[in-house]
Amino acid sequence: xxxxxxxxxxxxxxxxxxxxxxxxxxxxxxxxxxxxxxxxxxxxxxxxxxxxxxxxxxxxxxxxxxxxxxxxxxxxxxxxxxxxxxxxxxxxxxxxxxxxxxxxxxxxxxxxxxxxxxxxxxxxxxxxxxxxxxxxxxxxxxxxxxxxxxxxxxxxxxxxxxxxxxxxxxxxxxxxxxxxxxxxxxxxxxxxxxxxxxxxxxxxxxxxxxxxxxxxxxxxxxxxxxxxxxxxxxxxxxxxxxxxxxxxxxxxxxxxxxxxxxxxx
Length: 265
Description:
Elements: H1 10-31, H2 42-67, H3 80-106, E1 110-112, H4 119-150, H5 156-169, H6 176-179, H7 183-199, H8 205-224, E2 227-229, H9 235-238, H10 248-264
Antiparallel strand pairs: 1-2
């Protein structure tokens, strides 16, 4: 079950965590000539994320050590049940995307390019590894460490609201123009993932799987050019800038996932 951290001001630790994380990452970002308003290519963003996410587990370990808690308290474990939950979550995440995109296809809002499916074989495993790495890191930081820290001060709902507001706003570091319309969707996504952790008895397995399924599915579609929007659908439904989280379709997908999680519980 989700444990509470003992003693100390959680906001001091949270502020210190993100400040140290940023300061340690900043030299790496400066080497790559990054600044907040600079447009990024996919390779540049991946390189910056790699530096950022390689630091995260070390800092989480340091914060957990200071507070006297274990990885299991944060929701991370090596029990078979963790990997079963991860697999179930991954399948659920991919299935949710499939349902939404299938509906949009039948409405004539997008088209599929089956002739490009051979591209999937070359990117399947690399994107899977990347998706799981990103998802596990973000779940450990935001639905693990940060959520537990805030539960020292607030109830679960309020801790979830605050931690996922931080999660959403931090996306503004990358491509503000694209990120701003996605903020409500990112916040809701985080809340659904908090629900997944609750359903999974405090483990991050289900949440990591869901997150990984969404990242893997969307990245594969983008990299293989298996689909494109026809322009017949309303952007406020399909997503501004062709970003599902910036439209009603993405919100419905998240809410539908939340309903499924309630039945799983």
